[in-house]
Amino acid sequence: MTEKISVDGLVIELSKKRIKRMNMRIKEPDGRIVISAPCGTLDTEIVEFVRSRRGWIDRNVARIIERAAAHPEPETRAEKEAYRRDLKRRISERLPYIEEVTGLRANGWTVRDMHTRWGSCNTATHHINFSLKLATRSDEELDYIILHELVHTIVPGHGADFYAVMDRFMPNWKSIRAKLKR
Ligand SMILES: [Zn+2]
User: Fold this and answer.
1) What mean pLDDT do residues 84-110 have?
2) Ligand 1 center to residue 155 CA distance, Å?
3) Is the N or the C terminus of the chain less surrounded, counting Cβ atoms within 10 Å?
């Protein structure tokens, strides 16, 4: 069961469970604060837990809200379809170009509603999946993911040989990857 409590002006969703230790998460995209606590935890312990982590909470809530504002999630089905059309158009322009420059080839691609990864490449079939989340990302960020997945058609893992190919075709890939992580 989840209840809402307030600590020093912060609204917290608290659920008590059969767990050993209290833990806290800040949820995307709205920065909700969620705490799971062992059954029998006292209110004073929860207040103390929140107060001792207040700096961390404020920083992370701000970071998540900022990111959601910069990269809004589609809110309706129609909006999601518009994102998908737009992303497909961008990929169908950039992928052939990057294939041309690198000599690497994908064997088909799909845009999928993936949340944990930007892309994936089946190293046996060379089929690439792109996350719909790329729809709100810049051209250089999209190019980086396209190249990353194309490189997987010749190098499966993320070893030194993988990064050597990345360095050759996109010397600034590290700074672009850092942008994607924000
Ligand atoms: Zn990879």
Assistant:
1) 97
2) 9
3) N
Whole-structure pTM value: 0.72
Please give the distance, rounded to the nearest whole angstrom, from the Cα atom of residue 104 to the centre of ligand 1. 15
| Ligand 1 center to 70 CA (angstroms) | 24
In this structure, which topology does domain 77-181 adopt according to CATH? Answer: Zincin-like (3.30.2010)
Q: Determine the pLDDT at residue 60.
A: 94
What's the gap in Å between 149 CA and the centre of ligand 1?
6
Å from CA of 147 to ligand 1 middle: 10
117 CA from centroid of ligand 1 (Å): 9
What residue spans define the domains of the chain? 2-70, 77-181
75 CB neighbour count, 10 Å cutoff: 8
Q: Give the neighbor-by-neighbor strand order of the sheet with 128-131.
A: 109-112, 128-131, 119-121
